[in-house]
Amino acid sequence: MEKEITWEELKRLMAELTTKQADFADKQADFATKQADFAASQAAGQAEVKAAQLETDRKFKETDLKFKEMVEQSKRVDRKLESLIGNWSELVESLSEVGLVEELERYGITGLNEVIQNMRIKNERRLIIKEYDRIFINTDVLVVVEVKTNLRHPDVDKHIEDLKYIFQSRVSSGIQKVYGALVFLSAHADALVYAERKGLFVLKISGDGMVKALNKEGFVPQNFVQ
Q1: Quick check: 18 pLDDT over 70?
Q2: Which residues, listed in sequence order, are joined to residue 183 by a DSSP beta bridge?
Q3: Contact yes or no for 150/187 (Cβ under 8 A)
Q4: How many domains are contained in the chain?
Q5: Closest C-alpha to 63, from 18, 55, 91
């Protein structure tokens, strides 16, 4: 036989049930709050990510614009530099003639009454393989001049190597002596010593625009006739 529930017990059970229902409701509310907080956090995170992406895109576009401006500015500088270098080279080349013949006469090279400027040597396919800055000529002598703003050691070897092309031109016909000369505004000390040792004339453009030979007294130039 089942035991009868008294009124007191019934009230106690109902009170426990009410407490448990209230506790469950609290937990449901807390869970809903946490869900809402999580959703809000996700939304905020997405907003931050989107804002960060927008900021990154803005900075990228700004950087790209600055880069394009730098490229354009670099091109303008290059064009100006090319113009200056072109004019400077022409100035140096024109200065290289002033007093050069007189200086070479000090070393016994006389009669250089003809000058060829910017003479080009072409190969069998008519392609330019060498352009000489200046060539001074007398009856049987050629002086091949290379003009440099800043003379360096490798320039010496290159000038000597390039002298071979002169024999592919008509001007070398009947020539018995071919000398090399380097004219410069400034030079490395070792380049001057090396050039003279190789038998080249070294001539500096002085402050007054005159060319001055720096070879030692008694210098004998190398004859490069092949």
Answers
A1: no
A2: 147, 203
A3: yes
A4: 2
A5: 55
Q: Which helix (H) or strand (E) holds 135?
A: strand 128-137
User: Of the candidates 74, 95, 116, which is a domain's last residue?
Assistant: 95
Residue with tokens 């036989």: 1
CATH number for position 145: 3.40.1350.10
> Quick one: pLDDT at residue 180?
96
Helix, strand, coil percentages, rounded to 5, for the chain = 55, 20, 25
**Quick one: CA dihedral 189, 157, 203, 194, positive or negative?**
positive
Q: Which residues contact 202 (CB under 8 A, 6 or more apart)?
A: 151, 181, 182, 184, 187, 192, 195, 196, 213, 214, 215
Residue 200 has pLDDT above 50, yes or no: yes
C-alpha to C-alpha distance for 201 and 178, rounded to whole angstroms: 12
- Residue 110 is encoded by which pair of tokens? 């006389």
102 in the same domain as 202: yes
**Phi, psi for residue 188 in degrees, rounded to 5:** -75, 140
Of the listed ranges 12-21, 77-86, 217-226, the one predicted with least confidence: 77-86
pTM of this prediction?
Answer: 0.58
Q: Tell me whether residue 225 is in a domain.
A: no
Give the Cα separation of 152 and 194 in Å (integer): 10
